[in-house]
Fold this sequence. Notes:
The structure is a single chain. The chain is mainly beta. It has no helices and 15 strands. The chain is globular, with a radius of gyration of 18 Å. The mean pLDDT is about 95.
Amino acid sequence: ETAIAVGGNHSCALLDNNAVKCWGANAHGQLGLGDTASRGSSHSHMGNSLPAVDLGTGRTAIALAAGDYHTCARLDNNTLKCWGFNGSGQLGLGDTNHRGDGPGEMGDSLPAVGLGTGRTAMQIVAGESHTCARLDNNSIKCWGNNMYGQLGLGDTSHRGDGPGEMGDSLPAVNLGTGRTAQAIVAGSSHTCTLLDNHSVKCWGNNTYGQLGNALYADRHGNLSWHLGDNLPPVNLGTGRTAVAITGGGEHACALLDNHSVKCWGKNQYGQLGLGDTNH
């Protein structure tokens, strides 16, 4: 394989022929195989017996992302297709119908996500029940569950779960005047971006400090005045900038310009690497 994505209880691999194969839990069709049968608990499920996901006629994948119960692929034409659980609109298809859990829903029958006129995807990430893409103009669009403002749109309304919410109707996240995104990462219910000036901004659930900013106790992204120029970057230390970001469910980490690593957020198991369990 050339890349792998791990969701809540399922895994997917991008193979060397640019096909996608998924295994694990499948109650909501997150394996993209047209049924709800789990795969991988027996040798007989795997290898040549494990079908590739049907992405559509002539289509192959170049990147994958997996949420708790949904999966997305960035295709060779830089469009996105998502399948699995869709209760909050995380598949970006304008409804709440699951995809991939029954016959006839994948392949050419699975629509691409509407990103806006002329827009294509350069990166895809998936949280527990939301999805974000960095677009070809280095803007960010997010859809799905927005309970904590993790879509970065200044409210807590889900997007993609009803008609007329995607495409040109879905606003890009306000990153601040003149700012663009170099990378994105999605936690369970928060989102972070590495900006073009090598700062990091996060929005969404802040229960454990996973936004890296103590200015607000919670829900950093659910009011418009918390966003854009009013959203301060994560304080990485005097003179420090970030060169890469990653994250877990409720914490995030940055690789800094001096090759050190700083992490913030939930620390119940010491996942921040600081020798304690303080969030």
